[in-house]
């Protein structure tokens, strides 16, 4: 069963329509004919090009929460592409399933067929719960995919560390050597972040829901374990949420001891208002859609058939510095400054389209 919810189409289910009408172009709801987990494919904005975003397989409390996550993540992808200077729009898809027990080739194929209905408006990529092998299954049913040939995680990590360097430079540090960084989550991206930080001479404190990942980071990479304490509240220079989103709520923000937050995780803030609170506390915050754009840059290069693109990650550092400087000059938080810059670029693209 496949239902296409378009912002121009009345009569769709109330909760989903509410989300879809908030600037989004389309929301596709799909389910395999034999039943099973439901998938949600969100297209936020295609002013700059086709929407690109990962396929996330994760167990949510309910389908409405899953749909809300797809929409929230798709909107962030629009801003991510705009600020990275890429000819792409924002999209995302989620499957409400446990990736360890429910992710099957049949499930991925059904999701791929639903994506195929969009005719290339949405380009899927790897995300939480999926990898290149899963994208190869989806690729059999949709015109184009990204990250089927290479894992974008190392590029995501490299971009996050590039943003960290830009923040450190604001504080008079010429490198990350000697600084301390707390990393929450040492999965595909977090593990690479720790590896890069250690190579640069930074001290790292780590935590993860999977104790085996922590042990690996400690024994192989020389990280320190959080040992049951809240790693985001550690007495460090920078913190890096690199697992699930919505972790920086009001209580945590008020108790942070770091002077900078550079997330690898999407939607790290539990609410946009937390960006203002971070500014009030004198904590530099790099919006996640700026810091973690390296994976998107990798995916866009793969689509174009470009093998070497590492030099393009430097845009993340430049954008980080520009946004934090603009926030200081305008007296606003960095999320507001970043969104304003992205909106200007999107408006310019729409204006060019209208003139053409």
Automatic annotation (TrEMBL):
Task: List the Gene Ontology MF annotations in alphabetical order.
Answer: L-leucine dehydrogenase activity; nucleotide binding
> Which residues lie in coiled coils?
none
An example Gene Ontology biological process? amino acid metabolic process
Indicate whether Transmembrane appears among the record's keywords.
no
Q: Which domain of life is it from?
A: Bacteria
Detail which positions bind NAD(+): 185-190
The top EC class is oxidoreductase
**Alphabetical keyword list:** NAD, Nucleotide-binding, Oxidoreductase
**Which InterPro entries does UniProt cross-reference here?**
Aminoacid_DH-like_N_sf, Glu/Leu/Phe/Val/Trp_DH, Glu/Leu/Phe/Val/Trp_DH_C, Glu/Leu/Phe/Val/Trp_DH_dimer, Glu/Leu/Phe/Val_DH_AS, Glu/Phe/Leu/Val/Trp_DH_bac/arc, NAD(P)-bd_dom_sf
Q: Where is the Glutamate/phenylalanine/leucine/valine/L-tryptophan dehydrogenase C-terminal domain?
A: 150-354
Q: What is its EC number?
A: 1.4.1.9
Q: Where is the active site?
A: 92
State the Pfam families in the record: ELFV_dehydrog (PF00208), ELFV_dehydrog_N (PF02812)
Checking Gene3D superfamilies in the record gives: Leucine Dehydrogenase, chain A, domain 1 (3.40.50.10860), NAD(P)-binding Rossmann-like Domain (3.40.50.720)
| Family per record | Belongs to the Glu/Leu/Phe/Val dehydrogenases family.
Q: What is this protein called?
A: Leucine dehydrogenase
């Amino acid at each position: 069963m496949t239902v296409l919810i378009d912002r121009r189409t009345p009569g769709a289910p109330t909760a989903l329509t509410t989300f879809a009408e908030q600037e989004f172009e389309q929301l596709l709801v799909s389910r395999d004919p034999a039943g099973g987990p439901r998938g949600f494919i969100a297209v936020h904005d295609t002013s700059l090009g086709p929407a690109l975003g990962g396929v996330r397989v994760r167990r949510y409390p309910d389908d409405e929460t899953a749909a809300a996550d797809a929409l929230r993540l798709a909107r962030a992808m629009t801003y991510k592409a705009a600020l990275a200077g890429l000819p792409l729009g924002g999209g995302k898809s989620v499957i409400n399933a446990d990736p360890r027990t429910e992710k099957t080739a049949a499930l991925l194929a059904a999701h791929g067929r639903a994506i195929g209905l969009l005719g290339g408006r949405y380009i899927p990529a790897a995300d939480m719960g999926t990898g290149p092998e899963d994208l190869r299954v989806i690729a059999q049913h949709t015109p184009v995919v990204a990250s089927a040939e290479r894992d974008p995680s190392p590029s995501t990590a490299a971009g996050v560390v590039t943003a960290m360097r830009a923040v450190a430079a604001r504080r008079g540090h010429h490198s990350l050597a000697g600084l301390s960084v707390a990393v929450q989550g040492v999965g595909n991206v977090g593990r690479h972040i720790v590896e890069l930080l250690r190579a640069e001479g930074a001290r790292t404190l780590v935590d993860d829901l999977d104790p085996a990942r922590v042990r690996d980071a400690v024994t192989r990479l020389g990280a320190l374990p959080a040992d049951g304490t809240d790693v985001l509240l550690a007495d460090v220079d920078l913190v890096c949420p690199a697992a699930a989103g919505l972790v920086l709520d009001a209580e945590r923000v008020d108790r942070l001891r770091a002077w900078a937050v550079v997330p690898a995780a999407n939607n790290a803030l539990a609410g946009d208002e937390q960006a203002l609170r971070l500014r009030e506390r004198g904590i530099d915050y790099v919006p996640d859609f700026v810091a973690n754009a390296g994976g998107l840059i990798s995916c866009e290069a793969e689509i174009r058939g470009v093998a070497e693109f590492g030099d393009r990650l430097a845009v993340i550092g430049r954008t980080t510095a520009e946004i934090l400087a603009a926030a200081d000059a305008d007296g606003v938080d960095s999320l507001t400054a970043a969104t304003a810059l992205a909106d200007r670029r999107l408006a310019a693209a729409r204006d060019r389209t209208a003139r053409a």
